[in-house]
């Protein structure tokens, strides 16, 4: 029942995730943050097995930090995406991580980018992506309304439309969502100054 | 000077020296020299070939210059069989990086990784260090063109001009006057050939005794090119480093 989706705008990328933590019929909390800041200019939104989600995203985050400490330069978004996919692929035939990931980043010379990484280690560089039951609605809305080079206002408007659709049409719809944005100034939660 | 401390890599001498590492550097001091010069437009590597016999089968292989990856090459000085092992190690490390990140390995990281391997042989295992020094020449998008020198101890540093092999101490100080930061690619080649001719024992230089390779950008793509013997002869004449071919007749 988790939803994660993301899209690329003019000079930014957005990742949105629901914020409910559910076990069977019980809602543990409604303000769970499922979008991790990998570094100053990268976001990793994840959905799937709760323990795996926290474990794997933290593992990637710490490895991204280690790279920067060792080498004095940050990983590019593409390098981080490929590294993440490699870790999922290595574990796949032994001890798979049941985590689906939307990775968004901003690189100085390349601009914004979004990567779709599913739990069986597929990797696709995309303009828009979604996971979970909400993806049925998110992808349809994005197919209808998404254009290249949208402004932040237009993108957030589309995000709002998607959230409304999920809320009204999904049977056990999550009530709250977290929106995070990454651009040349860094990765941060949208709506916070 | 205690002789009993020099046959084991894993212990220090009372003066705080690792004799095996120093002896490895001695071995390199008897090998053919190599010089590298860094310019804004590329890196040039020249090497002195020690094995010059008419009977030698000169095919596509080189004695001093090796390509590690599409964007990194190296010149070697020292024991060739040791060098081959390390070159292969460097090639594997570069490909392993690209396998994980789908990007070329930054030059300094490659050098550092290889030097970590070399350092291992000075600290544990009971095996002697590699008797090889390297000059690494490469390009990456973080720092552009770079030149690194590494030795058997596993130390490395970045240089604008560097020399390894025989007479390297003299050759290392030579470019100080002639080198300037804005040196062009052609001037770097000229400087490298001139310096090498000064350090070499032989009176006349021919293209059979040298190898020259360059790392440069062509249409935005990094190229590694070994100079052909014909082109090298022309360069030697052009820069006044050798006698023209006319008096060979």
UniProtKB/TrEMBL annotation, chain A:
Q: Which InterPro entries match?
A: Ntn_hydrolases_N, Proteasome_beta2, Proteasome_sua/b, Proteasome_suB-type
Q: Which residues cross the membrane?
A: none
Q: Where in the cell is it found?
A: Cytoplasm; Nucleus
Q: Name one Pfam family in it.
A: Proteasome
What are the entry keywords?
Cytoplasm, Nucleus, Proteasome
GO CC annotations?
A: cytoplasm; nucleus; proteasome complex
Read off the PROSITE patterns from this record. PROTEASOME_BETA_2 (PS51476)
Q: Does the keyword Cytoplasm apply?
A: yes
Assembly information from the UniProt record: Component of the proteasome complex. Component of the 20S core complex of the 26S proteasome. The 26S proteasome is composed of a core protease (CP), known as the 20S proteasome, capped at one or both ends by the 19S regulatory particle (RP/PA700). The 20S proteasome core is composed of 28 subunits that are arranged in four stacked rings, resulting in a barrel-shaped structure. The two end rings are each formed by seven alpha subunits, and the two central rings are each formed by seven beta subunits. The catalytic chamber with the active sites is on the inside of the barrel.
What job does this protein perform? Answer: Component of the proteasome, a multicatalytic proteinase complex which is characterized by its ability to cleave peptides with Arg, Phe, Tyr, Leu, and Glu adjacent to the leaving group at neutral or slightly basic pH. The proteasome has an ATP-dependent proteolytic activity.
As for family, the record states: Belongs to the peptidase T1B family.
Provide the protein name. Proteasome subunit beta
TrEMBL record, chain B:
Domain Proteasome alpha-type subunits, first and last residues per copy: 5-27
Record the organism: Abeliophyllum distichum
Give a yes or no for keyword RNA-binding in this entry: no
Would you identify the family this protein belongs to, as annotated?
Answer: Belongs to the peptidase T1A family.
Quaternary structure, per UniProt, is:
The 20S proteasome core is composed of 28 subunits that are arranged in four stacked rings, resulting in a barrel-shaped structure. The two end rings are each formed by seven alpha subunits, and the two central rings are each formed by seven beta subunits.
Entry-linked Gene3D superfamilies: Glutamine Phosphoribosylpyrophosphate, subunit 1, domain 1
Its primary localisation, in coarse terms, equals cytoplasm
Check the record and name the Pfam families matching this protein.
Proteasome, Proteasome_A_N
Q: Where in the cell is it found?
A: Cytoplasm; Nucleus
Which named protein is this?
A: Proteasome subunit alpha type
Where along the sequence do coiled-coil regions lie? none
């Amino acid at each position: 029942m988790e939803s994660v989706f993301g899209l690329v705008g003019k000079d930014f990328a957005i990742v949105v995730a629901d914020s409910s933590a559910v076990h069977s019929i019980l809602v543990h909390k409604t303000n769970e943050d499922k979008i991790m800041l990998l570094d100053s200019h990268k976001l990793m939104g994840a959905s799937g097995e709760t323990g795996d989600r926290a474990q794997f995203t933290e593992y990637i985050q710490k490895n991204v930090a280690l790279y920067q400490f060792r080498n004095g330069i940050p990983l590019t978004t593409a390098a981080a995406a490929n590294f993440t996919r490699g870790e999922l692929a290595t574990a796949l035939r032994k001890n798979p991580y049941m985590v689906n990931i939307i990775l968004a980043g901003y690189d100085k010379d390349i601009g914004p980018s979004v990567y779709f990484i599913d739990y069986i280690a597929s990797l696709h560089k995309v303009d828009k992506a979604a996971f979970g039951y909400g993806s049925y609605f998110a992808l349809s809305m994005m197919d209808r309304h998404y254009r290249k080079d949208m402004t932040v206002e237009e993108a957030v408007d589309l995000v709002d439309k998607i959230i409304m659709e999920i809320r009204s049409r999904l049977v056990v719809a999550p009530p709250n969502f977290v929106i995070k944005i990454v651009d040349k100034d860094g990765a941060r939660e949208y709506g916070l100054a | 000077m205690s002789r009993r401390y020099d046959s084991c890599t894993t212990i220090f001498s009372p003066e705080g020296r690792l004799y095996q590492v120093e002896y490895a550097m001695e071995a390199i001091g008897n090998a053919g020299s190599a010089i590298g010069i860094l310019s804004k437009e590329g890196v040039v590597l020249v090497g002195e070939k020690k094995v010059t016999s008419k009977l030698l089968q000169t095919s596509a292989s080189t004695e001093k210059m090796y390509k590690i990856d599409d964007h990194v090459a190296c010149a070697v000085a020292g024991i060739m069989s040791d060098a081959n092992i390390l070159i292969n190690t460097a090639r594997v490390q570069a490909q392993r990086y690209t396998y994980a990140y789908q990007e070329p390995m930054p030059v300094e990281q490659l050098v550092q990784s290889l030097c970590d391997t070399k350092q291992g042989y000075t600290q544990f295992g009971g095996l002697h260090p590699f008797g090889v020094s390297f000059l690494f020449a490469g390009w990456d998008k973080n720092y552009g063109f770079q030149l690194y020198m590494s030795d058997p101890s596993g130390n490395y540093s970045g240089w604008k001009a560097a020399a390894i092999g025989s007479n390297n101490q003299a050759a290392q100080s030579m470019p100080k006057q002639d080198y300037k930061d804005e040196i062009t690619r052609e001037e770097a080649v000229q400087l490298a050939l001139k310096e090498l001719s000064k350090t070499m024992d032989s009176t006349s230089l021919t293209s059979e005794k040298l190898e020259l390779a360059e790392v440069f950008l062509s249409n935005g793509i990094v190229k590694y090119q070994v100079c052909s013997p014909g082109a090298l002869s022309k360069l030697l004449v052009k820069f006044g480093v050798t006698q023209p071919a006319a008096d060979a007749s």
